[in-house]
Structures are given as structure tokens and as C-alpha cells.
Amino acid sequence: MGQDILNALVLPLLFSMGAGTYAYLRFPERRPRVLLSLILFQLVGAYGHATQPGAALFGLLVVHGLVVFALLLHGLQTPRGELAPERVRRD
């Protein structure tokens, strides 16, 4: 059973869901990097499940995947705001 890999991955995956959702909603300009980080956490969890499969880790990965999928869908549905022009100091 993969109890030790579950113990090693449960806190990083829970942290990535919480902190990733917070960063995604709070900092719109950083959304692509936040989504990339969440996807990389998902890949690390998938590797852990491939090496030591277990139902609890699979359930955690499904929940993490749903969070990532929801944020990706939100990112695709949100219109991109135009950047404000830079202030240029004129002498």
C-alpha cells in the first residue's frame, strides 16, 4: 500500500490547492504561472500514484485535478484585459 507516499504528498497537494486558488484569484497577472505550478504539482502527484498506487492518493489527485480544471476553465472564459499604457515622464 502507498501510505508513505500519501503521507509525503498530502500536505503539498493541499497547500497547492489552497495557495494556488488564492494566488489565481488575487493576482490576475500571475495566472499563467500559477496554473503551470498547479499542473506541475499534479504531475508530481501522478508520478507518486504511479510508483505506489492507493485509493486515498487517487482521490486526492482527483480533487486536485478538479480544482486545476476549474481554474483552467475560468481562465479560458475570462476576457483578457488590455494592459494600461505606461506612464511616460516627459521633461
Task: Give the helices and strands, then pairings.
Layout: H1 3-26, H2 31-51, H3 55-77
Helix pairs in contact: 1-2, 1-3, 2-3
Describe this structure in words.
The protein is mainly α. The protein has helices at 3-26, 31-51, 55-77. Helix 1 (3-26) runs antiparallel to helix 2 (31-51) and helix 1 (3-26) packs parallel to helix 3 (55-77). The radius of gyration is 17 Å and the shape is elongated. The termini are far apart.
**Average pLDDT, to the nearest integer?**
88
Number of helices: 3
- What is the string of SSEs from the N terminus onward? HHH
Helix content: over 70%
Low-confidence stretches: none
- Compute the separation of the termini in Å: 70 Å
The count of strands amounts to 0
Report on the biggest sheet: none
Backbone shape: elongated
Features:
91 residues; 3 helices; 75% helix; elongated
What can be said about this structure in brief?
With 91 residues, this protein is an all-alpha fold. Helices cover 75% and strands 0% of the residues.
